[in-house]
Design brief:
By secondary structure, the protein is an alpha/beta fold. It has 3 domains: 4-86, Arc Repressor Mutant, subunit A (Orthogonal Bundle), CATH 1.10.10.10; 99-171 and 273-299, 3-Layer(aba) Sandwich (D-Maltodextrin-Binding Protein, domain 2), CATH 3.40.190; 174-270, 3-Layer(aba) Sandwich (D-Maltodextrin-Binding Protein, domain 2), CATH 3.40.190. Helices cover 43% and strands 23% of the residues. The chain is built from 11 helices and 12 strands. The strands form 3 sheets. Strands 4-3-5-12-6 form a 5-stranded mixed sheet. The chain has a 5-stranded mixed sheet with strand order 9-8-10-7-11. Strands 1-2 form a two-stranded antiparallel sheet. Helix 1 crosses helix 3 (35-49) and helix 2 (24-31) packs across helix 3 (35-49). The N and C termini lie far apart (55 Å). 29% of the residues are buried.
Length: 301
């Protein structure tokens, strides 16, 4: 049995760093120590747990089955310590190397990450961002557990039950994206032309834009393609006479990648609100407060 009262908590950070980087050298750089010191810490970890934990493989240090069992609980423990130790203290954005983890669909990543990363480069150059797309059912539990810090999107079902939120885009609309040589681009896009056209629909599991597909189905529009990622849309539209209904801000950004045009949507789909969400467990965290302030200043101001 391991005597938990005698565990050096720094070793848990060592474990987590090696597991994430798959490298003793990179883990040492993250800790600001030498590679031999990190190797010595790994040796202490192996002795503590009675297991090799990480072994050399073709793609770096590979976790043993026992290390894989430990990885989740150790990560959660470190997040808990981070939250406790950070409570009531200031957050020095200019020097921290903290990683902020987000749920965003690919549409959100296109819209929000470039301006955010540009700002961080100037005011918090060591802050790191990790974005992933979760299922709608998983977002709440991941926020509560602290495995992600924020969710950004049109996520009306996420509100309430311990979830805090602030609006970023209050009156966002849907627009229509098509290639510049599309037959319907020769004149203003009417409802008749829109419904007669072929459509490509984005069906991302982690977003709140199912209303587009539902509206097209109700109107008996000709949906020729359903894809899980908006990144496929420009390539599809450039080679076909399809069009796609997507959030206006995203449509404008994608239109800059090639010979595309953005047209006003000629059917009624309500405007929507995009918010940033976090769990109330972490509401007082200086780091969480700082990052959501950056988001609000960037996108709601």
């Amino acid at each position: 049995m391991i005597n938990t009262n005698r565990i050096d908590l720094n070793l848990l950070g060592v474990f987590h760093a090696i597991h994430e980087t798959k490298s003793v050298t990179l883990a040492a750089e993250r800790f600001g120590i030498t590679q031999p010191a990190m190797s010595n810490a790994l040796a202490r970890l192996r002795k503590l747990f009675g297991d090799p934990l990480f072994v050399h493989g073709s793609s770096g240090m590979q976790a043993t089955p026992y290390a894989l069992e430990l990885a989740g609980p150790i990560k959660e423990a470190l997040l808990g310590f981070q939250s406790v130790l950070g409570h009531g203290k200031s957050f020095d954005a200019s020097s921290t190397g903290r990683t902020f983890r987000f749920h965003m669909t690919d549409m959100g990543q296109i819209n929000f990450l470039p301006p955010l990363l540009e700002r961080l480069r100037m005011i918090a150059p060591n802050v790191k961002i990790e974005a992933q797309t979760l299922s709608l059912d998983a977002i709440r539990s991941e926020l509560e557990a602290g495995r992600i810090d924020f969710a950004v999107g049109h996520l009306t079902k996420l509100k309430g039950r311990g979830i805090c939120s602030k609006p970023l885009l209050v009156r966002e609309r849907y627009d229509v994206l098509m290639r510049a040589g599309h037959p319907a681009a020769r004149e203003p896009l009417t409802q008749k032309l829109f419904l007669k056209a072929s459509h490509a629909v984005v069906t991302s599991v982690g977003g709140g834009h199912q209303v587009v597909e539902e509206a097209l189905v109700r109107k008996r529009a000709n949906i020729m393609a359903r894809v899980p990622s908006v990144m496929a849309i420009p390539m599809i539209l450039s080679r076909t006479d399809m069009m796609s209904t997507i959030p206006g801000a995203v449509a404008i950004k994608l239109a800059k990648t090639g010979p595309f045009i953005v047209a006003a949507l000629p059917i009624n789909i309500p405007e929507f609100e995009v918010c940033v969400f976090w769990h109330q467990r972490f509401d007082a965290s200086p780091a969480i407060f700082w990052m959501r302030s950056q988001l609000v200043e960037l996108f709601a101001g």
